[in-house]
Specification:
By secondary structure, the protein is mainly α. It has one domain. Helix content is about 85%, strand content about 0%. It contains 6 helices and no strands. Helix 3 runs antiparallel to helix 5. The radius of gyration is 20 Å and the shape is elongated. It binds protoporphyrin IX containing FE.
Length: about 180
């Protein structure tokens, strides 16, 4: 069998499975878990901590986003014959390149803003648990600030991923 075909099939499988896990994880989190956690706070904090840290949700999202981007970058390199200018300026090329860039920015937002904020939140929750008593007022206000930031940035990242998916879905037919 042709080695190039096997290479492309493997890349597409990794890209689709990675993208499904990454975007699927974000959909479940933003549309279902986050509103439920907000509506049932503060009781939900322990549940969220277990979900994110002990069930390795952050790691799952990190690995699936990396696999999606790496396989996507290799597919882009192949489709564009090494980022050939003629391909990039064609309809499908522009749409796919735009979607790819959005996906890469979404990954950066996840790694450099969301992950450290989630880690800080988990650290605070552990410190409150270890102290045993009710949280100090400054801890409550920091938690509130971090949760608001996570939610706003998370929705922005989620929107970028959705647009990225939409561009991937239509790119090959974009011959206007
Ligand atoms: C939210 C993230 C992403 C999702 C859910 C996603 C999903 C998809 C889907 C469903 C396709 C199939 C389109 C088709 O066959 O017509 C596709 C194709 C493609 N994606 Fe993505 N993608 C994402 C991010 C990225 C990124 C960040 C890159 C580049 C760095 C990328 C590069 C590509 C390329 C080049 C193709 C075309 C592959 C081919 O024609 O063989 N994708 N993507």
């Amino acid at each position: 069998m042709n080695v190039l075909l096997i290479y492309l099939i493997v890349l597409r499988i990794v890209h689709f499975v990675g993208g499904t896990c990454w975007l699927g994880g974000a959909i479940i989190f933003h549309l279902f878990l986050e509103p439920t956690a907000k509506a049932t706070a503060p009781d939900s904090r322990q549940f969220m901590q277990y979900f994110i840290v002990r069930r390795h949700y952050s790691m799952f999202m990190g690995i699936s986003s990396l696999l999606t981007i790496l396989s996507g970058a290799l597919l882009l390199w192949h489709s564009s014959s090494g980022l050939d200018a003629n391909w990039i300026t064609s309809g499908p090329g522009m749409v796919l390149t735009f979607g790819s860039m959005l996906g890469i920015v979404a990954l950066g937002v996840g790694f450099f803003i969301i992950a450290p904020t989630a880690q800080r939140l988990m650290g605070l929750a552990q410190a409150i648990q270890a102290a045993g008593g009710p949280p100090l007022p400054e801890q409550v206000s920091e938690i509130h600030h971090l949760e608001t930031k996570m939610s706003k940035v998370g929705w922005t990242e989620f929107a970028m991923m959705l647009v990225s998916l939409l561009t991937m879905a239509v790119a090959r037919y974009w011959w206007f």
